[in-house]
Amino acid sequence: MKGYLRIRYAGYLFLGIALSMFFKKGIDALRADQQIICIYDQRIASTEQHKIRIALHALYAQDELCAQTLHMYVPQYFPFIKSFTMQRIPGAMCCSFKTRKPFCLVNNNLVLTTDGVLVGKEVFESQVLECLKTAYVSEIAIQKEYELGAFQACMSQLPASVLNAYDLVWHDAITASLRDKEQRNFSIFFNAETLPTLPVLADCNVIKKNLIENNLMQQKKTWIADIRFTNQIIVFEDKGGRRYG
């Protein structure tokens, strides 16, 4: 009987210790939640906000939540964050995060920011994505910083009216094209040195209408108006080749 009581007492003791550890962890988690306040740029998707919050609590639990750690941590795991601030207020640490400014949507799955950083589109709220200009960039060009810079400089110079009427398809600085959104088998070839002007685009539009009137567009052929030459537009049927977008 005494042995049974000892076992029973030991069991209660173990249970008491386990419960105290459980409640301590719960209190610690609650305290951690109370001590970290996050302020997010509203363009950041809620899923990414949640990831940031989890990361902060993990750093807090390891007693590593400080500006120095975040300066190393944020660029690696949250490259869409442009800057952050940390401020101690009574009973809490306040962390504020500002995102990079989106420039355009690339290949329907990436966002190029105004400072030239490529990030997954999922890091931004859908309302932000809906307002972005769209473009297609080749797999090779997308991996080269100077090509992305040339692409961004080009897109910045094209009027909104042009980007509303055409899809910008960027192969490289030598070959880019504007694909007609309504007549998708008609494209205008140009390069970084021969950006299309509104008068030239008007001439290309006349060419497109002539092709339509002569029933050449209905034959499922793709036509190119190449403006990369001085004072002339070369029109030809595209016989195939690698295309993007």
Topology of this protein?
Elements: H1 2-35, E1 36-40, H2 46-61, H3 67-77, E2 81-89, E3 92-99, E4 102-106, E5 110-113, E6 118-120, H4 126-130, E7 133-137, H5 145-157, H6 160-165, E8 166-170, E9 176-180, E10 186-190, H7 198-213, E11 222-229, E12 232-238
Parallel strand pairs: 1-3, 4-7, 7-8, 10-11
Antiparallel strand pairs: 2-3, 4-5, 5-6, 8-9, 9-10, 11-12
What does this structure look like?
The protein has 245 residues and is of the alpha/beta class. Helix content is 41%, strand content 28%. It folds into two domains: 2-99, no CATH class; 102-238. The chain contains seven helices and twelve strands. The strands form two sheets. The chain has a nine-stranded mixed beta sheet with strand order 6-5-4-7-8-9-10-11-12. A three-stranded mixed beta sheet has the order 1-3-2. The radius of gyration is 29 Å and the shape is elongated. Mean pLDDT is 84; it is low at 1-33 and 241-245.
How many domains would you count in the coordinates?
2
The average pLDDT value, as a whole number, equals 84
Strand order of the largest sheet: 6-5-4-7-8-9-10-11-12
How does the major sheet shape up? 9 strands, mixed
Structural class: alpha/beta
User: Using DSSP, what is the number of strands?
Assistant: 12
**Which value, in Å, is the CA radius of gyration?**
29 Å
What are the segments in which pLDDT stays under 50 over at least 5 consecutive residues? Answer: 1-33, 241-245
What order do the SSEs take from the amino end to the carboxyl end, as H and E?
HEHHEEEEEHEHHEEEHEE
- How much helix is in the residues? 40-55%
Shape: elongated
